[in-house]
Amino acid sequence: MVDDAPEQNPPGDEPSSDASDKPAKQKKKGNFWKELPVLILVAFGLAIGIQIFLGRVYMIPSESMETTLHGCTDCYGDRVLVDKVTFRFTDPAPGDVIVFRGPPSWQNDFISAEPDNPVSQGLSWLGSLVGLPSANEEDFVKRVIAVGGQTVKCCDEQNRVTVDGKPLDEPYKHFDEGTPAEQESFEELKIPDGMLFVLGDNRNHSCDSRCQGQGGLNGLVPVSDVIGKARVIVLPPSRWGGVSDHDPQTVSMGAPGWQENVPLGLGIVGAWPLLLLGRRVRDRFRR
C-alpha cells in the first residue's frame, strides 16, 4: 500500500529567514570586540618575548661604524635588527658586528637624558618593551677584531692591524674624507680568555678598545656583555640589507652546520604563533 500523505521536509531542512540570521551575525561581531583586547595583549606579549629572547631593533647613534652602519648627524641613523640567538650556541668570532653593554670602564657620549614628562616617560617605557631604543641605554656597536688567546697590534709596514703577527683583510674599513688613511697605532696586547678586542669600521672616528678605559685590558669587552649580532638594517628603507660579517683573519673551519642552522630553525618556530594570530585576526575581520 502506497502512502499518499504529502512529504514533509525535516525541520532542519527549512530555509532560514533573514531575521534568524541577524542574531548570529550580531553575536559573532560582539564576540570579536570582546576578543580584540585579548588578541592585542597576546600580540604585545609575543613582541616582548621576541625582543627578549630572539631579536631586537637598535638605533645607531654615532659615526663609528660608517659606512657599514650610518649614524652621522646629517643623515637618518640606521636601525639594525640584532640576533640574540646565535651567541647562545657559539661565541662571537672575528668579523662579527656586535651590540654589547658597555663595561664599567667604557663611556658612552651619546646617551641622552630621560624625559621629565611622565607621559613621555611612559611612552619610552612602552617602546622599550617592544624593542624601540631607550634614550639612556649604554649599549655599543663595534666589530670583533680579536678574541681570547689571540695577540693584536697596530700597525705593520702597510699600516694594517695584525693578529698573531698576521695582517688583517678589512674591506669594511673606512676613513673620513679629508683625513689621512692611516690608523692610530697601539701596543701589542694579548687578549685573555672570555674577552674581545673590538674596533669601529670608521677607524679613526671611533673610541673603542684602543681608547676606552685608556686602552689596554680596560678597553676589552667581556663575552658575557654581548647582547647579540647585528644582522639586518631595517630602517631607513633606502638602506635595507644585511650587515657584513667578513672575517678579517684567515678563514678556518666554521661552526658545525647544526649550530649555523639553529637560529634559522628557532626563527621559523617562533614565527608560527604570529602566523596563527594573524590568521585569526584576519578571519574575524572577514566575518
Structural features:
287 residues, alpha+beta, 8-stranded antiparallel beta sheet, 4-stranded antiparallel beta sheet, elongated, LexA/Signal_pep-like_sf
State mean pLDDT (0 to 100 scale): 76
Strand content: 15-25%
Number of helices: 3
> How far is the N terminus from the C terminus?
51 Å
Helix content: 25-40%
Helix-and-strand structural type: alpha+beta
| Low-pLDDT runs | 252-264
Q: What letter string, H or E per element, gives the SSE order?
A: HEEEHEEEEEEEEEH
Q: Provide the gyration radius in Å.
A: 28 Å
Q: Which oligomeric state applies?
A: single chain
- DSSP, total strands: 12
**Mind describing the biggest β-sheet?**
8 strands, antiparallel
> Outline, from the CA principal axes?
elongated
Family: Belongs to the peptidase S26 family.
Keywords: Hydrolase, Membrane, Protease, Transmembrane, Transmembrane helix
Membrane topology: Single-pass type II membrane protein
Main location: membrane
Explain what you see.
With 287 residues, this protein is of the alpha+beta class. It contains three helices and twelve strands; from the N terminus they run αβββαβββββββββα. The chain has helices spanning 18-53, 118-129, 257-286, and strands spanning 55-59, 79-83, 97-101, 139-147, 151-154, 161-163, 166-167, 186-190, 195-199, 221-222, 226-235, 241-242. The strands form two sheets. Strands 1, 2, 3, 4, 9, 10, 11 and 12 form an eight-stranded antiparallel beta sheet that branches. It has a four-stranded antiparallel beta sheet with strand order 7-6-5-8, with no helix packed on it. A hairpin with a 6-residue loop joins strand 5 (151-154) and strand 6. The protein is elongated and about 75 Å long. This is Signal peptidase I. Residues 1-26 are annotated as: Disordered. Pfam families: Peptidase_S26. Residues 34-234 form the Peptidase S26 domain. Keywords: Hydrolase, Membrane, Protease, Transmembrane, Transmembrane helix.
